[in-house]
Amino acid sequence: MKSIFTLLFLLFFWVPETHAQEDAYTYMDTDEEPGVELEISPEELEEVLEPSPEEDDPLETLNRGTFALNNFLDEILFDHIAAMYNGVVPEFFRERVGYFLRNLSEPIVLANNILQGEMQDAEDTLRRFAINTTAGIGGIFDVSTDLDIPYKREDFGLTLASWGFDSGPYLVLPILGPSNLRDTIGRIGDYGFDPVNWWAFFDDNKAIYSYTRTGVQILDAKADNLGIIGDLKRNSVDPYATFRAWYTERRKSLSARDEKRTLETAKPDEEDDDDL
Amino acid sequence: MMTSRKIFSMKTFIFTFFFLALTHTSYATDCEKAKTFMSDMGTKVIALLTNPSISNQERADEFRIILEKDFNLKAIGKFVLGRYWKQATPEEKKSFLNLFKETTVATYASRFKDYTSEKFEVLSCQCEADGGVIVSSRIVRPGGQIIPISWKIFEKNDEMRVYDVILEGISMGITQRSEFASVIQTGGGKLEALNAALAKKLDHS
Fold first, then answer.
1. Which of B84, B157, B178 has its CB closest to that of A241?
2. CA of B198: which chain A residue's CA is closest?
3. I want to staple B139 with a disulfide (CB 3.0 to 4.6 A). Which of A209, B49, B147, B173 is the partner?
4. Which domain holds residue B44?
5. How far is A213 from chain B (nearest CA, A)?
C-alpha cells in the first residue's frame, strides 16, 4: 500500500513538458521580420498569447500533469471498475446505492445551509433527511423528490463562495479531478463536518466504514458519469481546457443559483449577415 | 433662462426617449414568440434524433439544415473565437466556421445516438438585459432522468435564432471559447492550429 502511494506521489510530479508556447515566445524574441507564415505583429502575438480571464490558470503545467495522470488511472483502472459495476449491478440497485450515499451526506448539506443563512433550504434539507431516512428506508428511495422537495446540492466550497471567497487558482486533484483552491478547502471542511467520519475517526475498527464509503462514493460518481466524461473527452479538441471550463462554469452557476446572472453570450451584429 | 433650460431638457428628453426606444427595439425579442419558436424546433430535433428509420448520414444532414437555419453559427463562431477572430484572415475564418459547423453536427449526432423516446418540454422564458431572451426547457429521458437546457435567443430582422445553449447552467459558448483559446494558444496564437485540430477531430469521428 505504501509503495502505491509513493508511486502516485512520484507520478504527481512527473509533468509532461509542452514546448509549443515556448517556441512562440522564442520566435518573438528574434529580430526577424514576421514572415508570410505569421501575419500578425509580435505585439499582437503577445496580446494573443496572454490568457483571457476565464483561462486564469497559473498552475496549468502541474494541472495538466495531474490531468494526464488521472486519465491514465482511469484508463488502466477506474474506467474498468466503473464499467464492470455498471455491467454487473442492475440499474435499480445502482440507483439505490446512489440515493443511500446522497442521504448520508444530507447532514453536511444541512450544516452548509445553516452556515449560508439559508433557513428555508435548511428546513427543506431537514425534511428530506427525515422523510428519506424513514419512508425512504434508510435513504435508498428518494421519496422527498416525489413530494416536491428536490435535492439541492450544497457544500462548504459553495458556502465559502457565499461568504465572498474567490475561487482561487484552478486545481486538478489526483483521482478526484477538477477543483480549485476554495473548493479543495471546502472538501476538507465537508470531510471534517461529516458525522460518519467523526464516528469512524475515534475508533480504528470503524475506520474501514469511512474508507469504504469514500471508495463507493468515488465509484458511484465515476460509474454515473462514465458516459458524459467519455463524451467530453471524445468530442473536445483540448479535453483539459474543456473540463476546466465545465467545472468553473458549473460551480459559478451553483453558487449564483438564487441571483439572476446574465451570461455573456454571442449577440447579433451587423457583420453576421455578410458572407465571408 | 428658466424657459430655455426647460425647452432644452424637454428636447433632451424627447431625444433620449426616441434614442432609447429605437436602439432598444432593434434587438428586443418577444418572449412568447421565442417559446413557440423553441418548442417547434426542439420537437423537430427530438423527432429527428429519435427516428429509428433513417440512417445516421440522413440524420446528420437533416440536423445540419436545422442548425444552419435556426442557429446563428457565424455569431456563435465569432464569439467562441473571442479576440482571435480579429487576427484571423478571411480564409481562416471561413474554414473555421465550416469546421465548427461540421464538428457540432458530428458531436450532437454521436451525443444523441442512444435517444429513443425522449420528450422535449419548454418551461419558461425571461428577458435579458442585452435584448435577448432565455428560454428554459428540459429533456425528459425514458428512465425519468431530466436534463435542463436553456437557449439564448435573439430576434433580428424578424427572424429568431439561437445564439447559445446552456446545459445545466453551463454555457456551451463560454466553455468552447475556453477550449478553443487553449488550442490556439498552444499553437502559438494562430487560428490555423485550431482549424487543424478540428479537421483532425472530424476525420476520426
1. B178
2. A237
3. B147
4. 21-203
5. 25
